Amino acid sequence: MKTLKSLLILCLLTLSACSTIRMKYESTVVFDNNDRQKFVYVNSYPVGGAHAVLCGATAIFFGGYCWFYLVMPTTIQTVELKEEASKALTQKVGDKKFEERRIFTERVGFSEGQPEVYLGGK
Fold first, then answer.
1. What is the C-alpha separation between 117 and 69, in angstroms, rounded?
2. Sheet strands (E) in 47-91
3. Predicted TM-score of the model (pTM)
4. In 1-122, which ranges are E strands?
């Protein structure tokens, strides 16, 4: 009975921990006057689909479906991140004309959090 209870608690923790992905978008923003600034946007997104359930159900079999989390962010998640980062950057710079260079996206972790926006420095 204790083993079953422990396994159930482990599954519930796995399901709750793997339901959100935190991603970062980073670029160099070049303005018309050749001023360069670093732009960073970090936000959390729901993993979506049955990923968390499948991971919890198959984790006992050599990690099972949990290996899929290693390839995240997926293309769909990356597109969503880029769209939101673009909106945040446009709001931040206002009417100034700019060009983005050296765009980089990555997974930061599997946690929830508020969006973070940074523009400045080099």
1. 25
2. none
3. 0.78
4. 20-31, 36-46, 98-109, 116-120
Q: Taking the CA atoms of 86, 88, 90 and 92 in sequence, report the sign of the dihedral they define.
A: negative
* 32-79 pLDDT per residue, tens: 998 999 999 999 988 877 766 777 777 667 777 777 777 888 888 899
Give the pair of three-digit tokens for residue 116.
């973070």
Q: What is the largest CA-CA distance in the chain?
A: 69
Q: Which residues contact 67 (CB under 8 A, 6 or more apart)?
A: none
Phi and psi angles of residue 40, each rounded to the nearest 5 degrees, phi first: -130, 130
CB 98 within 8 A of CB 28: no
> How many Å separate Cα 77 from the centre of its chain?
7
* Number of separate domains in the chain: 1
CA distance 72 to 13: 20
Residue-range definition of the domain harbouring residue 55: 2-120
What are 78's two structure tokens? 């990356």
